[in-house]
Amino acid sequence: MARWNGFWTRRTDVQRVELYTKVSLYVLVWWVGFSVVVFRPEALASVRTALLLSVVVVVTALAATVGLRVAMAQVRPRLDDPAVRRATAANVVAALVALGLGLALPQDDRGLVVTVVAGTVAWGVGAVRGRAAVAIGPVLLVGGTLVLFGAAGSPAAVAWLGVYAFFVFTLRSSLWLLAVVRELDQTRQAQGRLAIAEERLRFSRDVHDVLGRHLSTIAVQAELASRLAERGDERAAATMLEVRAAAHEALREARALARGYRPVDLTTELEGARSLLRSAGIAWHEDLDDLPPRWREPVGWVVREAITNVLRHSTATRVAVRWERDTEGAGGVGGVGGAGGAGSLVVRNDGARPADPAHAGTGLLGLGERLAPAGATLTTARSDDDFVLRVDFPADTAAGRGEEPA
């Protein structure tokens, strides 16, 4: 049971829908054939009849399975695709073989063959687009009915065409739903890539702002220093000291930028989180009304990392972030009140995937190291399929300034 649960929970929602659709359709292909025979047990009284019907069911169901597999691999299968043509030809041949075997059956049992052909051909070629493909099923059914029953079978042919149309409608509806789910997933992935591209663009702008300004200053001052040195001006040494100071300042800001220690605006992070999760179809709830102002920037760091992990490492459908004030002022969970801004930030999401040490990231580790100078501690926990990220903030005012490391 645990192995099956892991097999299911490790899959994304799209993979689950695909698996459910494929298994359901494959089962229906074989169920249609065998149920028709089983529901008429008197036809199985003769060994010869039972053997012929079994061959009819197996041959047509195998061909339908091949056609169904090809149809599910494509969004809109058409006859101009070689794989679709081969699968369609296999279904036509299987139907002709089945109808030919029907001639060897008693008159009362031939209707079973036509019913099996109607069901399996619908699954095998019903999803193929184009006029020629649409005409295959009706032509086989009407022609097979006339061959097996003559003109007297015309009324029954109408009923079998109805059965065929019902199965085609069921198949196309299922494949349409699967295509919609795939397109939505592709849209979600595209939005994720767009968000990453926007973040890279933001980072590039920051790099330009930080380094561009300092490098321009260094270039101008270095040129000035060289001119002064050529004239033997004593101010050249002072100018070079200014160049060195500008270089050190550029290096410091570049390191801060790379480590993400630039000031973070919590309002901007929350707006970004809402937008990203909404585009991914994930419900969002926040309760940060009691958050002390001194903790807004560290909480912004946590929100950014938490949302990144949700999108990368879970199949979440909901995310909740809340601030819990500590009545004892020690960073634990408490009721209303609290002293000196002590409390805990709790981020909870469902859809947590099993931990994989081989692919463990360093984001949370780096976040914990970044929070340490502020006196905050980060812990994580799992409950069923929920993942809980918790950061306890102290009440000490000095530690609570959230100053960035040098």
What does this structure look like?
- The structure is a single chain.
- The chain has 406 residues and is an alpha+beta fold.
- The chain folds into three domains: 2-186; 193-259, Single alpha-helices involved in coiled-coils or other helix-helix interfaces; 266-401, Histidine kinase-like ATPase, C-terminal domain (Heat Shock Protein 90), CATH 3.30.565.
- Helix content is 64%, strand content 9%.
- A five-stranded mixed β-sheet has the order 1-2-3-5-4, covered by helices on one side.
- Helix 5 packs antiparallel against helix 6 and helix 9 (266-279) packs parallel to helix 10 (296-313).
- The radius of gyration is 35 Å and the shape is elongated.
